[in-house]
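Handout, section 4.2: multi-component inputs.
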Amino acid sequence: DAKTTQPPSMDCAEGRAANLPCNHSTISGNEYVYWYRQIHSQGPQYIIHGLKNNETNEMASLIITEDRKSSTLILPHATLRDTAVYYCIVSARGNNDYKLSFGAGTTVTVRA
Amino acid sequence: SQTIHQWPATLVQPVGSPLSLECTVEGTSNPNLYWYRQAAGRGLQLLFYSVGIGQISSEVPQNLSASRPQDRQFILSSKKLLLSDSGFYLCAWSGQGHQPQHFGDGTRLSIL
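Output:
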């Protein structure tokens, strides 16, 4: 898996959008970008993934730059329950590459 | 919809005792199955994965083993637990190709 770089922590205000950046400058053409989050003492929760097009689901939006070297996860209206560690992972998946390499992630604290 | 069940949620075992953690998936067929371990304050480490019944791949040498007796059942075992086996054990499943992995709620294992 290619290495990703995320800021160690960030704060955001409840009700505002939270924009979480991730750099993956060595990403390969067949590698997807996956975002997960982990709330304390729980298993990681899948949020969203994409290859090169922007993606949106009920939880978040994923914006991938045209050169695919970075991406941004957007939580449109952050709530206190969004406080968690957020992980950006790149993986080829499906090419005998089954490992998700979770780094340190970004600790997001949503404040009232 | 698909669900994943892990039990027990918490387990305290003495050194040298055996271990059996069970994971089952509902609502899908022929999933890929995974066992991860997360040490306190650390990232997730992939221990085993399985692409089919009886097919187990080990990522790291260790005191643990895994088995897949049925399509949607994945078991993590040990004959004699070590202190270093303490941690948060997570089971996950995925579909084929680039489909994301989905995690259970985990088992927190403490070895005394």
